[in-house]
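Per your request, structure below.
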């Protein structure tokens, strides 16, 4: 049976679903709106335990999931939603040992997910022009113990990326089409490119640019997520739905034949067929 240890990142969930995150340390306490909990009482007990504050209020002691961490990071900008991040990780084939570049660090939500997935053997390189945003992202990563897997670059990517032969590259920028030549140089042959954009006209501009910059197998999608009220006797959808948050665009870096001219059949080949 797995138990908590000193230094673990823990999550306490109250009966009203409010979540508290804490790094377990001897001698510390957590003061909540429903009473005080001593860290010493939480260290060495099994994960999943039901505990009580000094006022007798119940909490569940859990290891935070990646989703929990992403939804509770400190932010100064809109983060990419977990529903989109999950598919981004899948389409970019992010896993242990991979090297991935992102541009547009923001508050570090995607950075955190990438670092979680590449593991200690992998590397995430994050570019941004704003030092304050990277400082915030660094604090968010340090809070969850992932700062060692990320390298920050305070750099304008119009001047190019420092890296080459990276496995995947993601642009969270308003005009990603401007930076496709630089992205193609950074990616390995066959590497995966991704981007997220809020409007359809931005997607169109990116698709035109992808065709001109040695990318193929383009895919555009958006993801909708609907939750249900988990009440067995009256199961039904919740009143609100997480619908459009952005268009996701993916493509693969290719080596085109120099003499090949794009015609209708070749244009069809560059587009990814929707997978069922």
């Amino acid at each position: 049976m797995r138990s908590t240890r000193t230094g673990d990142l823990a999550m306490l969930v109250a009966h009203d679903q409010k979540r508290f995150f804490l790094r377990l340390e001897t001698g510390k306490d957590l003061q909540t709106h429903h009473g005080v909990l001593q860290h010493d009482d939480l260290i060495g007990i099994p994960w999943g335990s039901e505990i009580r504050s000094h006022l007798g209020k119940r909490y569940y002691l859990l290891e935070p999931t990646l989703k929990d961490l992403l939804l509770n990071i400190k932010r100064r900008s809109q983060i990419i939603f977990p529903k989109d991040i999950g598919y981004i990780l899948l389409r970019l084939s992010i896993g242990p040992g991979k090297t991935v570049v992102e541009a547009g660090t923001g508050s570090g939500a995607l950075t955190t997910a990438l670092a979680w997935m590449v593991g200690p053997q992998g590397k995430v390189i994050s570019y941004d022009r704003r030092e304050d945003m990277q400082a915030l992202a660094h604090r968010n990563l340090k809070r969850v113990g992932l700062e060692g897997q990320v390298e920050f670059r305070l750099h304008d990517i119009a001047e190019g990326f420092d890296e080459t032969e990276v496995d995947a590259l993601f642009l969270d920028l308003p005009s990603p089409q401007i930076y496709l030549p630089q992205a193609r140089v950074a990616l390995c042959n066959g590497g995966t490119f991704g981007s997220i954009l809020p409007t359809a006209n931005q997607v169109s501009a990116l698709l035109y640019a992808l065709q001109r910059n040695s990318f193929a197998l383009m895919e555009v999608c958006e993801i909708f997520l609907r939750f249900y009220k988990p009440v067995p006797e009256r199961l039904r959808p919740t009143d609100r739905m997480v619908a459009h948050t952005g268009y996701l665009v993916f493509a693969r870096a290719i080596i085109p034949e120099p003499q090949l001219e794009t015609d209708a059949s070749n244009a069809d080949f560059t587009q990814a067929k929707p997978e069922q």
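The domain at 67-269 is CATH 3.40.50.150 (Rossmann fold).

Regards,
D.
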